[in-house]
Every structure is written in structure tokens, then in C-alpha cells.
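Incident review: delayed structure delivery

Summary: a single-chain prediction request sat in the queue longer than the usual turnaround. Root cause was a stuck worker, restarted by the on-call engineer. No data loss occurred. The affected request and its eventual output are reproduced below so the record is complete for anyone auditing the incident later.

Affected input:
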Amino acid sequence: MEPLPVMQDSYTGAQEHSRTFILKVYLWMTAGLFITACVSAAPFILLSETQFYNLISEYIFVFYGLLIFEFLIVFGLSYAINKIPAILGLLVFLFYSMLNGITLSPIFLMYTGTSIFATFLICAMMFGGTSILGFITKMDLTKFGAYLTMALIGLIVAMVVNIFLNSSIMSWIISLIGVFLFVGLTAYDTQKIKNMSGSIDSSSEDGKKASIMGALTLYLDFINLFLFLLRLLGRRS
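Output delivered after worker restart:
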């Protein structure tokens, strides 16, 4: 029996909304990463390495203040996204991407440009492959959400402890665990976004807000995966 035209149109419309929603998520994520990359590299185009090092040393407290402000933005946007217009949520996300570029720029003082670029490519391939896996796997990854969250909390605690211990071995172990954790989170978050896409109107205000939060989630997965990989693979300058 051929499907009824109304049912077929409804199914086609749902598929289109799903594709549009997923496209928006990855579009905003890519825009955020592009802004972060451009801003982080800008100081080395405008300033010499010595000038930039002196600038950071002189305004180190401002730098740490920006790091704290970034955390507040993420938590604030997550809390307020349903209370503000979608366009404002997008602007906050892009502003956060710019700030993150500023706070990430010192990695160019710590690692060679070649190793940063090579690590970025490796991260992009790992992220892309894991994200595809999250889309095509038949396994329900939502059951791992609680375990991934607990592992993330444990990782943060270990990183704070190692600030005082300053153990190179512990740092290496933390970085290795961080890579595996954010690979898992990427697959988990991708499947969650895929599942969400089937039940939301991408053109609605709620759909736009959901795409922004999806982009922020994947953006954070990518950035953290990149940083942990850089700690493992980056060549010190």
C-alpha cells in the first residue's frame, strides 16, 4: 500500500526540519571555532613573541579574570537561554568564542605553531569520526550520561589537585583520560542532538535556541579534546 500523501508530506517535512536543525548546530559550532582560531592567532600577527609575553605578564590578573568570566558565561547562557531571544543567545555564544580565543592565545607561547596546527588537524579528524559514530550507532548512549558526568567531575578535581602537586606523570595520565572522556562526550552529545532534531521545529524560536546550545556543547567538546591532545602531542617551543 502506498503511503497517504499527507503522511508522506509530514514525514518529508520532519526530515527537512531535522536536517536544518543539525546543519545549524554544526554551522554555529564551526563559526565559533573559526572566531576562536582567528582571535587566538591575532596577537602573533600584531605583536612579537616578546611583546605578547610581556603583555600577558603585565595583565595576568585580567587574564585569569577572563577565564572566570568565561565559566560564568557558559553557566549563565545555559540557565538563561529559555528566557532570552535566540539572537541574543547566539551573540553571547559568539562573544564567548572570542573571549576563548583570547585566553587560548598563550598556547602559541608554549607550543610550536607546527605542532598546534598538526594537533588541530588530528583533533578535527577524531572529532569528525566520533561525531559520525554518534549519528550512526544503534547503541543507546544516553545510559552513559551519568557516568560521563561523574568522570568529568573527577577529571576536574584531579586537575585542580595536580596544580599543587605539579606531577608530570599525573598530568600525562589526566591528559590521556581527558582525550578518552571527550571522545565519549562527543559521541554522546552528537546522539543527543540527533535525537532532539527529530522532535523540534528548527525554524521556531525554541528550535533556534536548541541549535545554539547544541553548538555550544559540541564546541566545548572540540576545544577540550584539542587541549588534551595538545598536552600529549604538542611540541614545546
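Verification: The chain has ten helices and no strands.
Action items: add queue-age alerting; document worker restart procedure.
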